[in-house]
Amino acid sequence: MATETGHIRAGKFPPDTGKRKKRKPSGAVVPEIVEKHAGLPVQPTVENFLVQPGYATPKVDVRGAIVVDGGVLLVQERADGRWALPGGWADVGDLPSETVVREVWEETGLQVVISKLIGVYDGNRSGMPLSFYHAYKLVFLCEITGGSVRPNEEILDVAFFDFEDLPPLSSERTNPRHLAEVRAHAGEPARVAAFD
């Protein structure tokens, strides 16, 4: 007699003998979990999941780090008045490298090339409560090739800051851990990328 494991290895599933507990599909369980642990109502949660077909996957946030004469370029976000590395959400179909170059241009007016990947971070595990959506953050070290500094409709200001004298950070976008790694990479070009 074949074991359940043997059936699964053979690409077959064991017959339902009625002894196993029937489980709800994950689409039915997730809203209940969200309601219980996050205090969000079930119906809007279900509707939110339904507009996103397929398997739930993380969003991707990209950030460009530019370091000149020991200072790091930050943008002041209009959304919260705090400062972050320039960047934003990656668009479907775009390369992460294309996205960060575009985001830096849009938010700062600077043209850049990417030198290296600084790190890949789990955006939801930075000491803050988990967000409803999951996100990975990719931080790239960039070099300026042209352009001139100017903010846009999402950005109040663009400025360089000494790593020892940083303004209040927009911590969901950029946190001290990211900037410590940026500083380390700027001083050690052969440093390997950090990752969670």
List the helices and strands and how they pair.
Elements: H1 4-9, H2 26-38, H3 42-50, E1 59-68, E2 71-77, E3 83-84, E4 87-89, H4 96-108, E5 110-122, E6 135-147, E7 155-162, H5 176-187, E8 194-195
Helix pairs in contact: 2-3
Helix proportion of residues, in percent? 25-40%
Shape: elongated
Low-confidence stretches: 1-14
Could you say what the CATH architecture of the largest domain is?
A: Alpha-Beta Complex
Task: Indicate the mean pLDDT.
Answer: 84
Structural class label: alpha+beta
Instruction: Assign the CATH topology of the largest domain.
Output: Nucleoside Triphosphate Pyrophosphohydrolase
Q: Counting H and I runs of at least 4 residues, what is the number of helices?
A: 5
Order of helices and strands: HHHEEEEHEEEHE
CATH superfamily of the largest domain: Nucleoside Triphosphate Pyrophosphohydrolase
Q: Could you tell me how far the N terminus lies from the C terminus, measured between alpha carbons in angstroms?
A: 44 Å
Sheet with the most strands, sense and barrel status: 8 strands, mixed
Radius of gyration: 22 Å
The number of domains = 2
What is the strand tally?
8
CATH class wording of the largest domain: Alpha Beta
Our estimate of the beta-strand percent is: 25-35%
